[in-house]
């Protein structure tokens, strides 16, 4: 939890740089963020049960 804000800022910076350097489309970044966020939430919920 204490690393949440710095990690989100880091991920945002990397995402912006990937679009700026024309290595990814903005849609790639958005879909990747959704998948990453959802998988993190799912992992956390599964971990709580065990």
TrEMBL record:
It comes from the Bacteria. Residues 7-49 form the Phosphatidic acid phosphatase type 2/haloperoxidase domain. Signal peptide: none annotated. This is Phosphatase PAP2 family protein. It comes from candidate division WOR-3 bacterium.
